[in-house]
Amino acid sequence: MITALLPIFFAVLLLGLPIFASLALAVFLAIEFFGATNPVIVPMRMFTGMNNFSLMAIPFFILAAELMRIGGLSDRLINLAKALVGWVPGGLAAATVLSCLFFGAISGSSPATVVAIGSIMFPALVAAGYDKRFAIGLIATAGTLGPIVPPSIALIIYGSVTGTSVGRLFAAGLLPAIVIASILIAYCIVFSSIKGYERAPFPSLRQILVAFKDAAWGLGLPVILLGGIYSGVFTPTESAAVACVYGLFVGMVVYRTINVTELVGTLRSSGLISATLLLITAGASAFSWLLAITGTPSQLAGEVLSWTDDPFQVMALFNVVMIVAGFFLDSASAIIVLSPLLQPIAAQVGVDPVHFGVITLINFSVGMITPPVGLNLFVAMAISKMSLQEVFKACLPLIGLMLLALIIITYIPWLSTWLPSLIY
Membrane spanning segments where (predicted)? Predict the structure, then answer.
């Protein structure tokens, strides 16, 4: 049955079915023709997969991100980033990366970060004389910081399917996100120094303080959320609802940039995005269930550990597997399908599940900027009016930097485990 499952899945995927339907149909057909179980269990498992308290956070975080985006927060965060790093060589490019880090701490989503920051910074970079390919490649890649820096929708999904503490995962993502952002900013500085791009004058203390003041409401959201989670005031799921109330208050009362019409449109678009993501989760949950009941994770663990039980080699193999999977699956589906398979094996060779979660997320973040299903590439295409081939070529050097960051974070575990160990 398992031998037939993957070929059926890829066959129906190539026929053009949506990913959630491909996952569910593959399970249904595998059971119908090769199993002894009644296939009516498939929709039951799909519902069970969605009936998870942690997953309730997803639609709330998506709505909160949309509210903060249309509320005018992007401009204020960009101005703050310019004040902090705009004076270095390639300061505008460095500010783009820092803006993505700031906005990612609010949205928890990679495409949302690319849209919010890229729609403003791409025209600004081009107008400042930066090469179009460099600009769009940087924006598409820096957008991957969205799911890595806490709070993160992808980490919530990983925690729900592996039973790992979402609070610990949120803490674990902070330092790796800073490492990736630092590598990208260093690249901006070196590239811009070689090209001779102009830099902004060093800001005065007053300009920095004004930028902080303007962006304070936006920066306050992750502080409130993470502070509330780690102090025990509310759970990660409840924090998502707090984020919605906060975003609505800031947009309608503080900044006064959201009216009732825009609010209705935002509710509609957030609902559609949430439904899409939860449908994928449902299909992938049925897929993962079939793998689990057939003992596939145990068999796979035995096969892998028969080759080697060296953590260095096992993690190198898993990184390759996850990067290749990221070419063909969106990050949510890939996390749900592969994490229950690979995480127990990683645990057997001594890899902390929180550390493995961060590694998993970085691998699938690389998949966001690789074809054929790299969503950031398509968002970047819409922003830049460039072809998929052009955007992907622009991302290639930055993909190399992401892989460098992946190697560093994989083999220096304390980057992921130090902060959670302090808090918990």
Answer: 50-72, 84-106, 112-130, 137-158, 170-194, 215-234, 240-258, 270-292, 357-383, 395-414
Cis bond leading into 7, ω under 30°?
no
**Tokens for 132?**
């179009």
Phi/psi at 67 (5° precision): -65, -40
The first and second tokens of residue 166, run together, are 């979402």
pLDDT digits (tens, 9 = 90+) for 35-54: 777 888 888 888 887 777 76
Residue 67 near residue 258 (C-beta atoms within 8 A): yes
**3-state secondary structure string, the chain?**
CHHHHHHHHHHHHHCCCCHHHHHHHHHHHHHHHHCCCCCCHHHHHHHHHHCCHHHHHHHHHHHHHHHHHHCCHHHHHHHHHHHHHCCCCCHHHHHHHHHHHHHHHHHCCHHHHHHHHHHHHHHHHHHCCCCHHHHHHHHHHHCCHHHHCCCCHHHHHHHHHHCCCHHHHHHHHHHHHHHHHHHHHHHHHHHHHHHCCCCCCCCCHHHHHHHHHHHHHHHHHHHHHHHHHHHCCCCHHHHHHHHHHHHHHHHHHHCCCCCHHHHHHHHHHHHHHHHHHHHHHHHHHHHHHHHHHCCHHHHHHHHHHHHCCCHHHHHHHHHHHHHHHHHHCCHHHHHHHHHHHHHHHHHHCCCCHHHHHHHHHHHHHHHCCCCCCCHHHHHHHHHHCCCHHHHHHHHHHHHHHHHHHHHHHHHCCHHHHHHHHHHC
User: pLDDT tens for residues 126-152?
Assistant: 998 999 999 999 999 999 998 899 888
Model confidence over 66-88: pLDDT tens digits? 787 777 777 888 889 989 998 89
For the chain, the domains span: 1-423
Please check whether residue 239 is in contact with residue 169, taking contact to mean a CB–CB distance below 8 angstroms: no
Q: How far apart are CA 423 and CA 253, in angstroms?
A: 34
The angle that helices 166-195 and 153-162 make with each other, rounded to 10 degrees, is 140
Ranked by mean pLDDT, which of 4-18, 332-346, 400-414 comes out on top?
400-414
Which bin fits 235, alpha (ψ -120 to 50), beta or left (φ > 0)?
beta
In whole angstroms, give the CA distance from residue 73 to residue 106: 10
In b/e form, how buried is each residue of 190-209, taking b as 16+ CB within 10 angstroms? ebbeeeebebeeebeeeeee
The pLDDT assigned to 298 comes to: 67
Report the b/e string of 214-235 with b at 16+ CB within 10 A: bbebbbebbeebbebbbeeeeb
